[in-house]
Amino acid sequence: MDKKVTRKALWASGLSIIIALAMLFGVTFAWFSDVASNKGNVIASGNLAISVIGYDANGNPTVNFKDEHDPIINESIWEPGLANTKFVKIQNIGTLGLKYELTFVTYDQGL
Fold this sequence. Notes:
The chain is of the alpha+beta class. The chain has 1 helix and 3 strands; from the N terminus they run H-E-E-E. It has one helix at residues 2-33; strands at residues 50-56, 61-64, 86-92. It has a 3-stranded antiparallel β-sheet, with no helix packed on it. A hairpin with a 4-residue loop joins strand 1 and strand 2 (61-64). The chain is elongated, with a radius of gyration of 34 Å.
């Protein structure tokens, strides 16, 4: 009876070792045969530098966002007929390409 149990245990351990090796081979094969494609993207090294300057209607610089964090339009008293024009210059001064998005936050203060 002891030989029968030992033989079954030996077969079970041998079978489990074979299954473990098959799973290891399957994982390794999947790891080395995997393919990833990267279409349209370019990996490049360089310098990403941006200059953002706010100008008034006459073309005079008012805000340099590198040094200051003031809002472009900072007037608090608005009267009927009052107009305000501001310009923003965004310049890429680095060596890498730049895509940017502008977002404006406006407050109506309960109006």
